[in-house]
Amino acid sequence: xxxxxxxxxxxxxxxxxxxxxxxxxxxxxxxxxxxxxxxxxxxxxxxxxxxxxxxxxxxxxxxxxxxxxxxxxxxxxxxxxxxxxxxxxxxxxxxxxxxxxxxxxxxxxxxxxxxxxxxxxxxxxxxxxxxxxxxxxxxxxxxxxxxxxxxxxxxxxxxxxxxxxxxxxxxxxxxxxxxxxxxxxxxxxxxxxxxxxxxxxxxxxxxxxxxxxxxxxxxxxxxxxxxxxxxxxxxxxxxxxxxxxxxxxxxxxxxxxxxxxxxxxxxxxxxxxxxxxxxxxxxxxxxxxxxxxxxxxxxxxxxxxxxxxxxxxxxxxxxxxxxxxxxxxxxxxxxxxxxxxxxxxxxxxxxxxxxxxxxxxxxxxxxxxxxxxxxxxxxxxxxxxxxxxxxxxxxxxxxxxxxxxxxxxxxxxxxxxxxxxxxxxxxxxxxxxxxxxxxxxxxxxxxxxxxxxxxxxxxxxxxxxxxxxxxxxxxxxxxxxxxxxxxxxxxxxxxxxxxxxxxxxxxxxxxxxxxxxxxxxxxxxxxxxxxxxxxxxxxxxxx
Length: 543
Prior knowledge:
- By secondary structure, the chain is an alpha+beta fold.
- Helix content is 52%, strand content 14%.
- The protein has helices at residues 2-11, 18-34, 39-54, 58-86, 138-143, 152-164, 167-178, 184-194, 198-204, 243-255, 291-295, 321-335, 351-364, 374-385, 394-409, 413-426, 434-448, 455-461, 468-482, 491-505, 509-524, 536-539; strands at residues 94-95, 101-102, 104-114, 117-127, 212-214, 220-222, 224-235, 269-281, 307-316, 343-347, 369-372.
- The strands form 4 sheets. A 5-stranded mixed beta sheet has the order 9-8-7-10-11.
- Helix 2 crosses helix 3 and helix 3 packs antiparallel against helix 4.
- 32% of the residues are buried.
- Residues 1-17 have low confidence and may be disordered.
């Protein structure tokens, strides 16, 4: 190490004569006085400093400092691991959970890839004289070594990199940040292992307290408990498609190989069902919203919108809509076990969604308010308005939609239906044409969804009336990662990524990793032992 240090100083233009050698020897001796073997690392710090001080450009100084710091850190980590291994006190033996006694002891070693590089972990292997009985390593349990050979810190970083971009992006980022080259298949396995306990964690995660707001009478009450569900398609591998989608895909292949026929879809996607639960606060000014606040807000003026807090998400690539809504209602029940809060379900008009929310509410004996997303209502109104306004006259169409929207927000949806019907009768569109179909669709939609258009009460209470929470979740949890160009997912890979992205979006990632690492410690190590000894035995520490 000292010779390396002298060469390094010479390369930087520093004198490498006897004086420099004596200085490095003194540094090494001082380091070894602190801990045996630490001296060469102290010398290396001096070499790094001299090299950085001799550089001119910041880029050169920083690159040298980063590369050398990683090497010095790896050396310090290896030195600490070796010192701990030297202090390990062998046990008389270990008895596994299988009841077999391992009384033979032998030196052993394994390699772990860390954020700094590879380190060698020496430990005592406890073996049985019986053939086929697996060895036990008590020091592995004390250190909580991951069985995949990648440290927990590296796994957390790799999962974060792969969660944010493609696996190739994750590989490049891990390599640039740590100097460790991790293969794509290894990264996929790291993400899959990271998500192994996500479903169990979600069922027992700490429940946030309900925000309290002041009611119209001045009395405090808990904020409304909002929930929503939706789905977004994910491009899957052929063997991961649902049976009906796979049938359509096979049929398409028989028609032609180059392009889709009329009305055909690619038949390569599987719907990822998504649910959300959140606490909703009224607009900050405390004043009730009015229909005019929604429909007549000047351009550029920020909306007076409710505030969503304590958002929690769930995603399932194999789950059905009913199963995800059951999870959503279960989370709502955890937040309000006494069923004292107002529950609000926001839906996009899908009849099956509405039915699922109603069935779950009936099972719990809880009355809930179901609201149709007002944005979906506006889309229907736009299609109908185009039938009654001159082609290309966007201002006239906007005015008509605004007038109808104000009426619906005020609770006059029947008047809107009657008005549309009357205008269609007075000036009938071409039978079977697009306008004729849109008018019928709009009136039928408003009639069927009338029980779920309770906007006046929702606005008065400061409740949300749009599904922005779940629409955004489908975009940023699913689409932004699983929808990247060229991605094709297996069921297991898609579900693992969805779980990790949902946990991150729910702000539960630090708590989840702590929980996950603790559970893995028990599963990988402690569960394999009968009456595990205290950790001090493996570290040579006083009990």
